[in-house]
From TrEMBL:
Reactions that this protein is recorded to catalyse: (6R)-5,10-methylene-5,6,7,8-tetrahydrofolate + 3-methyl-2-oxobutanoate + H2O = 2-dehydropantoate + (6S)-5,6,7,8-tetrahydrofolate
NCBIfam families tied to this protein: panB (TIGR00222), PRK00311.1 (NF001452)
HAMAP family assigned: PanB (MF_00156)
Active site: E181 (proton acceptor)
Record-listed E.C. numbers: 2.1.2.11
Name of the molecule in the record: 3-methyl-2-oxobutanoate hydroxymethyltransferase
Organism: Acidithiobacillus marinus
Cofactor dependence: Mg(2+)
């Protein structure tokens, strides 16, 4: 097993929590590594928070490889996760393996794909061929056009049971990690206890093995953030203030200063 991943497995067994954040470029990866993050996710959320789209469906494999290359240069000891974007893996296990290969060559350590039990054969195909897979269930943003909105999942008894089943099937198929997005805390806690894979929660309560947040939410770079995200900084406002200050200085002749020579 990848040395970095065995540390995650050990931490799950010993109840030590791990923290991830999304990163889309070199500086963010460098800050994350210096801050002691355990992992960075090159998420296809970049379609929304970097490109300004309404959802993640326009993101391409080429874009994901481009951003993964930048991130791995700054990621240091962080485990680098990268998303397979919509349309690059759903058709067949072979298609997923080829797309995952492109992300691995770009520098990813772990490849993430969305979907439940229907993706188990793909997870097994890739895992058996040495690719570290992270599954992603619950709210899967690539299916948002099918659902019509970003909806919490697993809120009914039947929904919760379906999620538990999917998590155990994906873990048994060889997924090393399972992201649980926007699911009830109790469901996430139960799944985390029951499966071998390391669970990574987002909007899933405190009892998953690890947590992930979108960097733009955590840092206050988005205008609005989902209710489960904590904004640790209002960097967007601070950037805007700094830029306005610069405009003012230029307008008033305060910048640049006059030099003697
Ligand atoms: O793309 C992304 O940022 C993600 C996280 C929300 C888990 O998939």
């Amino acid at each position: 097993m990848h040395k970095k991943i065995s540390r995650w497995v050990k931490d799950k067994q010993q109840g030590r929590k791990r923290a991830l954040v999304t990163a889309y470029d070199y500086p963010m990866a460098r800050f994350a590594a210096a801050a002691g993050l355990h992992g960075v996710l090159v998420g296809d959320s970049l379609g929304m928070v970097v490109c300004g789209d309404q959802d993640t469906l326009n993101v391409t494999l080429e874009q994901m490889c481009y951003h993964t290359r930048m991130v791995q240069r700054g990621a240091g000891d962080c485990l680098v996760f990268a998303d397979l974007p919509f349309g690059s893996y759903e058709k067949s296990p072979e298609q997923a393996w080829e797309s995952a290969g492109a992300l691995l060559r770009a520098g990813a350590d772990v490849i993430k794909l969305e979907g439940g039990a229907e993706m188990a054969a793909t997870v097994a195909f890739c895992a058996e061929r040495g690719i570290n897979i992270c599954a992603h269930i619950g709210l899967t943003p690539q299916r948002v056009r099918q659902w019509g909105s970003f909806q919490r999942q697993g809120t009914s008894d039947a929904g919760a049971q379906r999620l538990q089943h999917e998590a155990s099937v994906l873990s048994a198929a060889g997924a090393r990690f399972v992201v649980l997005e926007a699911v009830p805390d109790v469901v996430a806690a139960r799944i985390s206890r029951e499966i071998e894979a390391v669970t990574i929660g987002i909007g899933a309560g405190p009892d998953t093995d690890a947590q992930v947040l979108v960097a733009h939410d955590l840092l206050g770079l988005e205008v609005e953030s989902p209710p489960f995200a904590r904004r640790y900084l209002e960097a967007g406002q601070q950037m805007q203030d700094a830029l306005a200050h610069y405009v003012e200085d230029v307008s008033n002749g305060q910048f640049p200063p006059r030099r003697a020579h």
